[in-house]
Amino acid sequence: MLLVAPENFLLFAPLLPEAASGTIEPRHAVIPLREMLRRTQLLVGEVTSIDLESRTAVAEDLTGAKHEISWAQLVLSPGSVPSVIAVPGLKENAVGFKTLTDAIWLRNRVLRQLETADATLDPVRRRELLTFTFVGGGYAGVEALAEMESLVSDALHTYPSLSRQDLRWVLVEARNSLLPGLDPKLARYTEARLRRRGVEILLETWLESCVDKKVVVSAPGVEPYVSDTIVWATGQRPSPLVSGLGLATDEVGRLIVDDQIRAIGRSDVFALGDAAAVPDPDGGICPGTAQHAVRQAKVCAQNVAAALGAGQPTTFTYRNRGLAVTLGRNQGTAQVYRFTFTGVLAWLMGRSYHLLMMPGLARKVRVVADWTTAMLFPRDLSQLGSLGRRAPLE
Ligand SMILES: Cc1cc2nc3c(=O)[nH]c(=O)nc-3n(C[C@H](O)[C@H](O)[C@H](O)COP(=O)(O)OP(=O)(O)OC[C@H]3O[C@@H](n4cnc5c(N)ncnc54)[C@H](O)[C@@H]3O)c2cc1C
């Protein structure tokens, strides 16, 4: 069994917003693959091409060397990548929120902005430094914004020269509500909570441009403004690895699979997660969530084993049980079947669920220790952005 992965860890993405806000140590949001998969050979690198006819793939390792791999059964789970649409200035000025690097960068950036604003006397420039725009009102955008706002709120009292009036948080969403797929009542609750915390929520609004960090949005009445930090938390598209195979894909480029997670017309190719269009037992296609990807992985593993002669194949029957969204300290929303919860209870439910899903006892214990520490002590506000830049020896 061989796994090709670009990092030697699995990122538990639901904890990414908390890793960004520093509620948990970023390293605790990942699980080392070599520790988790003791009987699997790991090749840290990237699959660059796949040939279905000869059942081979080429992977490039960290040294740049290419490896030709022969496979009997192929499992594709390359996830999604940010789709950068043609918004002027976007590539140059916005950052994504998908990887651990993004989360660590954002935390350091936000804290650095506070320090720079503290040292700035010009009130206009100070406001620009402390204006944060998040584009995308889905789970990633809402949770990331809520956690960062919560971090800054807690940090503010340590900067006597800064006040809430210096801060501006803007959330831009193209649809007419936040958090698609969640009970509309909970989406409205989330919107109200964020607005109460001073977040400007612009619904049915598009980012039109952000050249030189000057944000122009489609909403009438919102004047163009400078936002030093712009987070692009929307527009994911399936990894191009699956669309280039010549197999059937859906309208957004996900590989179409059957209820055994197997690509249409192939007995030896499986696909799951954000890059696959897996039939949802409740109708339609499964949403791109970790809870679905994990269940699809179990079905896929059983079917790969069956294809190799061990055991019987099975079908994907998992039904969505609900969703939880954490909104920073003690706030959240949760939906379990048709029951809805808000506030501290929902926040605790979200945390418990994430803990339950987190693989490995050691990581669970570390996360609980981080949460406990965060409840008992003030936030750690150290800004370690300079760590990535090694000073040259003179
Ligand atoms: C901020 C954030 C918060 C989220 N919160 C939740 C939540 O609370 N609950 C929930 O259920 N879901 C949540 N999700 C969604 C969830 O993370 C995804 O649905 C899930 O990770 C999809 O799993 P996947 O394996 O398909 O893709 P991924 O987890 O993205 O993994 C794909 C992996 O394949 C690698 N890869 C890509 N191309 C190649 C290649 N050519 N060669 C080798 N490797 C490659 C990628 O680098 C990546 O490591 C969240 C997502 C984000 C970004």
Automatic annotation (TrEMBL):
<dbReference type="GO" id="GO:0003954">
    <property type="term" value="F:NADH dehydrogenase activity"/>
</dbReference>
<dbReference type="InterPro" id="IPR045024">
    <property type="entry name" value="NDH-2"/>
</dbReference>
<keyword id="KW-0520">NAD</keyword>
<dbReference type="Pfam" id="PF07992">
    <property type="entry name" value="Pyr_redox_2"/>
</dbReference>
<keyword id="KW-0285">Flavoprotein</keyword>
<feature type="domain" description="FAD/NAD(P)-binding">
    <location>
        <begin position="3"/>
        <end position="297"/>
    </location>
</feature>
<dbReference type="InterPro" id="IPR036188">
    <property type="entry name" value="FAD/NAD-bd_sf"/>
</dbReference>
<keyword id="KW-0274">FAD</keyword>
<comment type="similarity">
    <text>Belongs to the NADH dehydrogenase family.</text>
</comment>
<keyword id="KW-0560">Oxidoreductase</keyword>
<dbReference type="InterPro" id="IPR023753">
    <property type="entry name" value="FAD/NAD-binding_dom"/>
</dbReference>
<protein>
    <submittedName>
        <fullName>NADH dehydrogenase</fullName>
        <ecNumber>1.6.99.3</ecNumber>
    </submittedName>
</protein>
